[in-house]
Automatic annotation (TrEMBL):
Enzyme's top EC category: hydrolase
Any one Gene Ontology molecular-function term assigned to this protein's record: protein-glutamine glutaminase activity
CDD domains, A to Z: CheD
InterPro entries xrefs: CheD-like_sf, Chemorcpt_Glu_NH3ase_CheD, Cytotoxic_necrot_fac-like_cat
Gene3D superfamilies tied to this protein: 3.30.1330.200
Record keyword Transmembrane present: no
Functional description taken from the UniProt entry: Probably deamidates glutamine residues to glutamate on methyl-accepting chemotaxis receptors (MCPs), playing an important role in chemotaxis.
Reactions performed catalytically: L-glutaminyl-[protein] + H2O = L-glutamyl-[protein] + NH4(+)
Signal peptide stretch: none
Name of the protein this chain belongs to: Probable chemoreceptor glutamine deamidase CheD
The gene coding this protein: cheD
Family: Belongs to the CheD family.
A Pfam family of this chain: CheD
GO BP terms: chemotaxis
């Protein structure tokens, strides 16, 4: 469902979910996503006016997994997929510019997955010779990204960080009871 402002502008909003990559040259398309520790890379060819966005959950599969099997949730697959989709629409790799978003470490008590995701995106783009024009990575806040692929315009909004302390474990209320059923 389109929001009122998007619908009134005649735009088609495409939500980019985890494990997806979309590219377009249509000026009426807006790509959007919500990120926590995930990373979204927005690529843009300013001459062809083609852009695209991906959304990956983890950088690379663990070394125990075969590299011959691709999993759409990993950045390794989604970065290649995004570049190839854009080339298929007529973009030139030598003209691509990148903007990287996300990579938050929402819970400081957990491993810094967001930091690893951001570092992977940087490394991949550097290896491919794609310059990073802008980045908004890290921190503890979630982000909502809106990207107009035909113009390269991006709007990033951050969610407020809850002020409740994260170091207190949740305690089960005394009145709660029940069994756990495993399946």
């Amino acid at each position: 469902m389109l929001s009122a402002s998007v619908a009134s502008a005649g735009l088609e909003r495409v939500t980019v979910m985890q494990g997806e990559a979309h590219a377009s040259a249509d000026p009426k398309v807006e790509l959007s996503t919500v990120l926590g520790s995930c990373v979204a890379t927005c690529l843009y060819d300013p001459v062809a006016r083609i852009g695209g966005m991906n959304h990956f959950l983890l950088a690379e599969p663990p070394s125990t997994r075969s590299r011959e099997t691709f999993d759409e949730h990993y950045g390794l697959f989604l970065m290649e997929l995004l570049v190839n989709k854009m080339l298929g629409l007529g973009a030139f790799k030598s003209r691509l510019k990148a903007r990287i978003y996300g990579g938050a470490n929402l819970n400081p008590a957990m491993s810094p997955i967001g930091t690893a995701n951001g570092a992977f995106a940087h490394k991949f783009l550097q290896n491919e010779g794609i310059p990073v024009a802008f980045e908004d990575l890290g921190g503890r806040a979630a982000r909502r990204i809106h990207f107009m692929p035909a113009s390269g315009m991006v709007r990033c909004r951050t969610a407020p960080i809850e002020s409740a302390p994260m170091d207190k474990p949740l305690v089960r209320p005394q009145s709660a009871s029940g069994d756990v059923e495993l399946f």
